[in-house]
Design goal:
CATH architecture of one domain in chain A: Alpha-Beta Barrel
Radius of gyration of chain B: 19 Å
Strand content of chain B: 15-25%
CATH topology of the largest domain in chain B: Rossmann fold
CATH architecture of the largest domain in chain B: 3-Layer(aba) Sandwich
Largest interface: A-B, 42 and 35 residues
Structural class of chain A: alpha/beta
CATH superfamily of one domain in chain A: Aldolase class I
CATH class of the largest domain in chain B: Alpha Beta
Strand order of the largest sheet of chain B: 3-4-14-9-10-13
Distance between the termini of chain B: 47 Å
CATH topology of one domain in chain A: TIM Barrel
Order of helices and strands of chain B: EEHHEHEHEHEHHEHEHEHEHEEHEHHEH
Number of strands of chain B: 14
CATH class of one domain in chain A: Alpha Beta
Shape of chain B: globular
Oligomer: heterodimer
Largest sheet of chain B: 6 strands, mixed
Strand order of the largest sheet of chain A: 5-4-3-2-1-9-8-7-6
Amino acid sequence: MIGALEAALRNRRDSGRKCLVPYITGGLGDDWIEVVRAAAAAGADAIEIGIPFSDPVMDGPTIQLANDQALAAGVTPQSILGTLRGADIGVPTAVMTYVNLAFHGGYQRFASNLADAGVSGCILPDIPLEEIEPWAEAADEAGVETVLLAAPTAPDDRLPRICQRSRGFVYGVGLVGITGVRTDLADTAKVIAGRLKSVTDKPVLVGVGVGSPTQAVEVCEVSDGVVIGSVVVQRMLDGGGPEGVGELVADFRSALDAAYS
Amino acid sequence: MMNGPDQDGRFGEFGGIFVPETLVPACQELEAAFREAWADPEFRSDLDGLLADYAGRPSPVTACSNLSAEIGVNVLLKREDLNHTGSHKINNVLGQALLAKRMGKTRLVAETGAGQHGVATATAAALFDMECIVYMGEVDIARQELNVFRMKLLGTEVRSAQSGSRTLKDAVNEAMRHWVSVVDSTHYCLGSAMGPHPYPWMVREFHRVIGTEARQQCLKLLDGRLPDVVTACVGGGSNAIGIFSGFADTDTELVGVEPAGGAAVGRAVPGIVHGSLSYLMQDEWGQVLEAESISAGLDYPGVGPEHSYLASTGRASYVAVTDAEVVEAFQLLSRTEGIIPALESAHAIAWVSRAREELAGKTVLVNLSGRGDKDVSQMMDILQ
């Protein structure tokens, strides 16, 4: 059975266009849910919602700062999911956070909390294939799509197993490193996209180090779409608000649509 | 006993490999390389040679007659403070650096709290002519100035970790972020028996020499008997796991001593951070709490997974001491034995001193994991 997240991304791909998934730090600013709505209205196919964690080891300075600000403002997993519940966003959402927030109260409870809040997918970057099963089973049970990451360092025999277990889409990590905007798209971005495309029919999106419309267009020569994180969060940190983030997402959307339609 | 972990890197339910996908192949490569090297007599003999001729092993066991008379407990010290660089950390670092070299890595990255592991890593990097970067929390850089200078003198770049509590936990975060970015060329020289598989196992094996030596030394000193109790301080828990490993298959009682403000085992709530499932100080949502300890080396909210396992099975017990008790013990050992302990090691002394009534007449082996030179200026501020 295909979940809402994968269905939305497949629809976009089947129409000959590219998928765009912005990441927004939950609880960053009082108007964050308006930012989410604005991103959806500007042409995002799904939205990743970051739930801030105290020790985000996969994240670079921008998302770390956003995390710290949101945590200092008192945001909790419950408050973020509470805001998402019943919020009419118009596109599927996927939560991105770290495994301990899911583990702490029990995987089943966390998965059902996500489902209750209307969240379609979940990404936990510090729980690799070797450890994924207990969480992934709980998520499957609750109807939450577990998106797995695939890194450039993975040997060939690992990728089919990742793709097989991933739900929603397969998240290709664009570079060997942590989240953040880089001047140029890393050579690894298109390579990982190609390696994944050759072993799966699921949508393949590349994120980490995709920070401009030009870079998004470039990686989409191979991938089915992109995840954009730090560039969006930086706009929020700069006080861009719903309007600023909406414009940014629209820029990515129109660049992708101009190149692929 | 203490032959684990299983093939998934688990000690019972604890341990595992909770790292970003990018690092999984590196951890697996490291596991294979360590397994192969540890079975290779040539590697073992190279390492033994370094431990003897460079680090100064075996370290002695000292019977503390003055302290024993004062508190009524027969105290023996395993003198890891006498190793080159001043602590037990050198055992693990020489092993990892030798392994990294064998794996063709040219750079080392490490985290450090008190600076002892950082200094040991910087030392090995100088010896093996490797590039070295050490992350240290901004708070710790201020309170362990001497060790920062030592690392620089040894040719290492010390980078300040400025996120979160700006102590050991954040230094680990920064070291992991760095490792994620340079994993091909760089070995992460993790300083405690924690982190993803194979680190808790590998670090224990590199420190097993402490327990193996101590057991032989005790048998000799005690006319064929073993100590009633073996105790050591526990932050991540490397010196404790090293000495425990020599006694785990005996009737000797094993006691780990945590700082009251960083007692992960004492709180016994499991969690996942920095690569493994273990006891972890956290809030009601699972956010990791900041530890608070006078000792930079124990100022850590987690603990190595094998300690959680030993606690859960009851093979070892864990107690906590306060900063005030540690300050007291620091002076007690200095005054009675002429040995200035590291603040970390003073935790174990503090427990023995506090528990003197229940320990009366017993023989207690304390792992004196490090010397206190690095702590003297901090103690001067506290005591004067």
